[in-house]
């Protein structure tokens, strides 16, 4: 039995639920379309929305557990001091990108709310879909920071297999 804390947190649960719901509504739509030659109108709009949730929540989980795709060649061949500098530079690059996504995503969500924009398919308020962009971008930022602290302290997830 492992002494590690479990990986399932809110972001992992959100990603899992999004995937389960995508599978369920897609399967339901296929069955209904096959049986009745009609389809549910909401499946495409909800599937795209849930796919975005799945992507960002999954990225948050991957950021926490140091499982993002990256080039590790430099990390492997540097001594510990300069390696920590590379860790911080990687983190800073992520902070810049995700900070911009959080800032502009927040502005976009607020504008969608103020303008009362509706989705083209179902006519639901667009801000319901858009508000997840800044929220989950901020979650990735938090998880990246937690990962940076672990890496700077020398803690590495033993289950991660790096094949470089």
Describe the structure.
The chain has about 160 residues and is mostly helical. The protein has one domain. It is built from six helices and no strands. It has helices at about 10-35, 45-65, 75, 80-115, 125-130, 130-150. The protein is elongated, with a radius of gyration of 20 Å. The chain starts with 9 loop residues before the first helix and ends in a 12-residue tail after the last helix. Keywords: Cell inner membrane, Cell membrane, Membrane, Transmembrane, Transmembrane helix, Transport. The complex comprises the extracytoplasmic solute receptor protein and the two transmembrane proteins. It is found in: Cell inner membrane.
Task: Give keywords.
164 residues; mainly alpha
Short description, anyone?
This protein is an all-alpha fold. It has helices at 10-36, 43-64, 73-77, 80-115, 127-130, 132-152. Helix 2 packs parallel to helix 6.
């Amino acid at each position: 039995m492992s002494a590690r804390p479990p990986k399932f947190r809110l972001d992992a649960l959100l990603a899992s639920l999004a995937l389960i719901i995508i599978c369920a509504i897609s399967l339901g739509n296929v069955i209904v379309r096959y049986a009745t030659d009609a389809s549910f109108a909401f499946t495409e709009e909800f599937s795209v929305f849930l796919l975005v949730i799945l992507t960002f929540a999954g990225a948050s989980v991957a950021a926490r557990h140091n499982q993002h795709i990256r080039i590790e060649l430099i990390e492997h061949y540097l001594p510990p001091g300069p390696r920590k500098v590379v860790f911080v530079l990687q983190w800073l690059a992520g902070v810049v990108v995700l900070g911009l996504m959080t800032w502009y995503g927040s502005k976009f969500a607020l504008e969608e709310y103020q303008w009362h924009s509706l989705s083209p398919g179902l006519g639901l308020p667009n801000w319901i879909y858009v508000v997840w962009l800044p929220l989950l971008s901020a979650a990735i930022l938090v998880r990246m920071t937690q990962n940076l602290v672990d890496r700077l302290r020398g803690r590495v997830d033993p289950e991660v297999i790096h094949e470089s």
